[in-house]
Design a protein that fits this description.
It is a single chain. By secondary structure, this protein is mostly helical. 63% of the residues lie in helices and 0% in strands. It contains 16 helices and no strands. The protein starts with 5 loop residues before the first helix and ends with a helix.
C-alpha cells in the first residue's frame, strides 16, 4: 500500500502561502486561518495522485482504511486528519479493536477513533484492569462511563474483589438503571473514607439518588471538614435537589486563604 504524507504536502503549500502573505496577518489571525486552509487542502486535487485527500480515503473500504492507519504508524509516516476523520465517520469498531492490543501508538489511535462505542466497552474494562498506564486507564474509564450499565455486574464484582476500586465506584456512579446494591456501595464508600470525601461525594451526585442527601448533610455539618470538602459536599447536595445554608467559617483554611487572600 502506497502511503501519502498529506500533512507534509500541506506544510509545503502553507510555507509558500505564508511567504507570499508575509506581514499581511497577525499571529493570532494565522491561528484561525491555518485550520481553514487545511480543510480546503482536503478538497484540493493532488496532482501526483489525481484526486483530493478526502476522495483518496473516501474510496477505501473499511478494511483498507484500518490497514492504511497501521501502515502509517509502522512506517512512521504522519497520519493526516483526513484519514482519521474518514475512519471516525464510519466507526468500524470491530476492525479497530485489535489495535488496542498493538503498539502504544496503535492503541492510542484506536482509543480515540473508537471512542465510547459500546462494542468496545468490555475490552475497555479488561484494559482498565490490566494496564499499568494511568493515561490509558483514565481514557478507558471515561469511555466506559458512557455505557456503564453494560458492565455494572463486572464493576460490582471487581469492586468486591478490591480490583481498581475507585475506578469501579466511578463507573457504578454513572449507571442509569438504579439499584439498592449500587447505592449502598457508594454510600458505604463515602462514609468509610475520610481521606477522599470530595471524590466520593461527587460519585453520589453523579448517581443521582436523593436518598444520599441525609448522609451528605450529616457530613457537611461536621466541624472538621476542609473548605475543599465543603465545596464538593455543597455541590453534591445541590445536585440532588437539596440545600445547605448554614454559615461556616473557613478563614483559617489554607485553600480558602489561597482563593480568598483578602478574606
Amino acid at each position: 500500500m502506497k502511503l501519502y504524507d498529506f500533512d507534509g504536502m500541506f506544510d509545503e503549500k502553507l510555507s509558500e502561502y505564508i511567504s507570499k502573505n508575509a506581514g499581511r496577518y497577525k499571529e493570532n489571525e494565522w491561528e484561525d486561518i491555518i485550520p481553514v486552509l487545511y480543510q480546503r487542502f482536503g478538497d484540493t486535487v493532488v496532482k501526483s495522485l489525481g484526486k483530493t485527500p478526502r476522495k483518496f480515503y473516501g474510496e477505501m473500504t473499511d478494511e483498507e482504511l484500518v490497514k492504511c492507519l497501521r501502515a502509517h504508524l509502522k512506517q512512521e509516516v504522519p497520519v493526516s486528519d483526513f484519514l482519521c476523520t474518514e475512519i471516525e465517520n464510519r466507526r468500524p469498531a470491530e476492525l479497530l479493536l485489535p489495535l488496542l492490543d498493538g503498539t502504544r501508538g496503535e492503541c492510542e489511535y484506536a482509543l480515540n477513533l473508537i471512542g465510547a462505542d459500546e462494542r468496545a466497552v468490555y475490552k475497555y474494562m479488561d484494559m482498565l484492569i490490566s494496564s499499568d498506564d494511568e493515561d490509558i486507564k483514565n481514557t478507558c474509564a471515561d469511555y466506559i462511563k458512557e455505557n456503564a450499565d453494560l458492565v455494572l455486574s463486572s464493576a460490582l464484582e471487581n469492586y468486591k474483589k478490591g480490583v481498581c476500586p475507585e475506578y469501579m465506584l466511578e463507573i457504578m456512579s454513572r449507571t442509569v438503571k438504579k439499584s439498592d446494591e449500587v447505592f449502598d456501595v457508594l454510600v458505604k464508600a463515602f462514609r468509610g473514607d475520610a481521606d477522599n470525601i470530595p471524590m466520593h461525594a461527587s460519585y453520589l451526585a453523579a448517581y443521582g439518588d436523593e436518598r444520599a442527601l441525609e448522609f451528605l448533610l450529616d457530613k457537611i455539618d461536621e466541624d472538621g471538614i476542609t473548605f475543599v470538602e465543603y465545596q464538593e459536599l455543597k455541590f453534591a447536595i445541590e445536585a440532588l435537589g437539596g440545600e445547605y445554608e448554614k454559615e461556616r467559617d473557613f478563614s483559617n483554611d489554607p485553600y480558602y486563604k489561597l482563593i480568598h487572600p483578602q478574606g
